[in-house]
Specification:
The chain has eight helices and six strands. It folds into two domains: about 30-115, Double Stranded RNA Binding Domain; about 135-210, Winged helix-like DNA-binding domain superfamily/Winged helix DNA-binding domain (Arc Repressor Mutant, subunit A), CATH 1.10.10.10. A hairpin with a 2-residue loop joins strand 1 (about 50-60) and strand 2. The model is unreliable at about 1-5 and about 10-15 (pLDDT under 50). The termini are far apart. The chain is globular, with a radius of gyration of 25 Å. The strands form two sheets. A four-stranded mixed beta sheet has the order 3-2-1-4, with helices on both faces. Strands 5-6 form a two-stranded parallel ribbon. The chain is α/β, with parallel strands linked by helices.
């Protein structure tokens, strides 16, 4: 039997999908950000936040910054793959990682000042646990190379007490987990050419030009 409608009645219908989603409140980005900050603060207070990270925009592209309680542990260029860098930190440091920008505000500010020619030295603690042995010695020495100056890979090897380990010094620079702040870009070949760099040759040349401008 065919159903009939009384005069003036309107047909009922199943609610469309857009009706259901349309009834939901719009996402408030500010509220979300505040909730995230509270989560990060609570995690830190409870001692369950081992690695905090954030990204910042720079003339060299978006940089991933990550820090432990000891200090800045990772600076990753876009070509490193930020997800890959975080996965490495989860494996080698701790899986308790959270996007917690506030812990890295100081580092972000100093990097902004550096790229704006307003800072010549970084004043932030650095955690070099991702580099050990000879590589750790090389990175410690790099912190002593002044702004606007360069050393050759041979000079760096000699400064660490291993003058024949020139290639190993180059590897230590190439695997530096905290570039820019630990200035491996200030190490060049003996003929003065830039040589390799974790962020790519263009990034290295840009940093050298910035510091000699």
């Amino acid at each position: 039997m065919m159903a009939t409608m009384e005069p003036g009645a309107t047909a009922s219908r199943e609610p469309e999908a857009w009706d259901l989603f349309g009834s939901l409140p719009e996402r408030d980005e500010q509220v979300t950000a505040r909730l995230h900050e509270r989560l990060a603060a609570a995690a830190a207070a409870e001692g369950i936040l081992d690695v905090a990270y954030r990204t910042i925009d720079t003339p060299l592209g978006a940089l991933l910054l990550a820090a432990t309680e000891q200090g800045l542990v990772r600076v990753a260029y876009p070509n490193h793959g930020h997800d890959a860098a975080l996965a490495q930190l989860a494996e080698l440091v701790s899986p308790r990682i959270l996007n917690a920008p506030a812990r890295l505000d100081g580092v972000a500010r100093q990097l902004d000042e550096y790229f704006a020619h307003q800072r010549r030295a970084f004043d932030v603690p650095v955690d070099l646990r991702l580099s050990r042995g000879f590589r750790h010695s090389v990175l410690t020495h790099l912190l002593q190379i002044p702004y606007g100056s360069t050393e050759s890979y041979a000079q760096v090897a000699a400064a660490t007490g291993h003058p024949r380990a020139v290639r190993a010094a180059g590897t230590a620079c190439a695997t530096n987990p905290v570039p820019i702040v630990v200035p491996c870009h200030r190490v060049v070949r003996s003929d003065g050419s830039p040589g390799g760099y974790a962020g790519g040759p263009d990034a290295k040349r840009s940093l050298l030009r910035l510091e000699t401008a």
